[in-house]
Structures are given as C-alpha cells and as structure tokens.
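Person: I have long wanted to understand how a fold can be written as tokens. Underneath my words sits a plain record pairing an amino acid chain with its backbone structure tokens. Those tokens are not coordinates but codes from a learned vocabulary of shapes. I should like you to check that the lines agree and flag anything odd. The protein I mean follows directly.
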Amino acid sequence: MTEPRDASAPGFPPGAGAPPTAVAARSRRRADALGIVAVIVAGVVLVPALLVFLVGLIPSMNAIWWLGLFLIPLLAIAGVAALALAIPGIIVGARRGGGYALSITGTVLGALMLVPAFWVYVGSSL
C-alpha cells in the first residue's frame, strides 16, 4: 500500500489542495414521542365522539345521543391525559431544539376535548 501524499509533494496536481476529509454525519433528530402519544390518545377518543355526533344529527338516529353520557366524561379524561403528555413534550422539544409540532397539536386537541365537558358543567349560565 502507498502512503497518502502531501499536497505540497512533487507530482501532486497543482490547485488540488488538501485531500478531502471525512464529513461528520448529521445527527438525526429524535422523534417527538410525547407528542405522538398525545395525538394518538386524542385521536382514539375523538373519532368515536365525532362519529356519534354526526350520526346523532340524522333525524332517525336521535337515540344515539345517550352515548354522550359515556363519551363526554371519556373526552374529559382523555383530554387531560393528552394535555399531560403534550405540555411536557413542548418543554422537552423546546429545550433540546428539536421539533415539537406534534406536541402543540396534542395540546390543541386535548384542549378541544375539554370543551364539551366544560359546556355541560357550565350549562346555560354563560
């Protein structure tokens, strides 16, 4: 094997400069795990609740509204869980300089999931 040649050695092409060096590979950003879990928790509860709401708008399916008695507390519990996952996800993402868009999405979905329970609690006093 031959030894690497110096750029100033005779026979080295002029203007070639130093031989290329290895470039460090870019580190891959870590996934926003808390945000992913928060969005999944919100989606698992929001999709059935939206389906019950949309089916309840059909005049012949008004009997489905009794599911709201089950879904509204479930929305509130899952909304608190989504917020409990997403808010630390925003903090962790901001501290490490990574992406935290899914944590923000989880926060928004969690807050929206608390609206029906708040609406039932406050009632018509607003």
Q: What stands out?
A: The mean pLDDT is 83.
